[in-house]
Amino acid sequence: MRQRIMSHVTVLVVLSVLLTYLAASLVLYHKYRGDMQADVIKEAEYIRYALENVGEEYLAKDLGQLTTSRITVLNSQGEKVYDSNPEKDQENYGEMEEIQEAQDQGTGQALRFSGMLSHQTFYYAVQLENGDILRVGKTGDSIFRTMVSSFPLLGLIMVLILALGFLYMNYQTKKLIEPINSLDLEKPLKNVVYEELRPLLKRVDQQNRQIASHVEELKQAERVRREFSANVSHELKTPLMSISGYAEIMKNGMVRQEDVPEFAARIYDEAARLTSLVQDIIELSKLDEKEGELPLEMVDLYELVQDVCRNLALPAGKKNISVKVEGSPAKIRGIRHVLYEMFYNLVDNAVKYNREGGWIKVSLDPGENGPVFTVEDNGIGIAREEQDRIFERFYRVDKSHSRKTGGTGLGLSIVKHGAALHQAEIRLESRLGEGTKIRIFFKEPEKHPEG
């Protein structure tokens, strides 16, 4: 940045000096030429007055030494009568512009360059009363010679200006850049030195906040991962140890023959629990993957609800629980097996955590903004302080009851992930000892043109 500023300043200084020099030269040249022309005309008028009143006696031989101008007198035939500088004698005076104008108009003037444009001569001619022509000429440096002769001085001035400019700009550049180098990028908006930098600093601050948020999310994800790994290890270890223990007892012949069916039933129950746990873990892992990899299709939610309730009719009947299904067909664009798992887990929980002879109401309403799925029961309910955590992985409200019913602690977590996948909202209402009501609000399905 500093080098760029210096190079730009150098160009500006050089251009400024050259343009200033050119403008000053033109102004001085025009002033000098105007003054010279005025002096020549005034001198010619003085000499004319003297010649007309004194006579040719005024034309003394030493008149040329009294002035730097060249004085020439021509008769009416164009022949030279007097020349203050005979060494510069010229022929064909009659063809000269100023002489012809003086003969025709009484006065004439001309400006001629000589010596490769290094000198210029201004001539002024006036016609006398007797018909003679008086011409006065004065030579001086042209603008080109004046500019060329000033180049050494111009170069010296330019070097001095550049040196001073570099020193000054080096100081100013350091002073300008120092606040930028001293910016606190952790808190960029704390002290904004230059308002021009505020938009950039705002973006830096926004990025800092995003990075901090992402770091916190990563830390949270890492904590969840570690907790999940620990819970998975514990949950898998428990049924495996039970199966291993029962099998070892049977292997060593320590079980009476009449107790073998009971031990086999326990092994079967633990194996079923282990299978259910593994299935839930696999399902949850699928939901953690990229959403775009899962196939979307138009799904009739009411059809799924009826299918789920039919499959859970037997467990509900064993506890003498009545299941009532209400609603009408409603379709959304989603993932069929994920939606089925969501509905199944919610209705299954309503069966598991219900009391003998209880009731369950499952409904699907069109809703104003999209279908609403509802599961309501009069089971054990959920305490208020527990309601914010029931969708966490492996979290159980009643751990002893969950073990007894075969719950894995992943069902509601699958529901939460499935709802997020379908951009749906979950609402929970529950009172301890009175029952639970869970609703899922889906969005209106997208309209697709037929065909």
Automatic annotation (TrEMBL):
Its main location: membrane. It catalyses: ATP + protein L-histidine = ADP + protein N-phospho-L-histidine. It is found in: Cell membrane. Residues 201-231 form a coiled coil. The chain crosses the membrane at residues 6-29, 151-171. Keywords: ATP-binding, Cell membrane, Coiled coil, Kinase, Membrane, Nucleotide-binding, Phosphoprotein, Transferase, Transmembrane, Transmembrane helix, Two-component regulatory system. It comes from the Bacteria. GO terms for biological process: cellular response to phosphate starvation. CDD domains: HATPase, HisKA. Residues 231-446 form the Histidine kinase domain. This is histidine kinase.
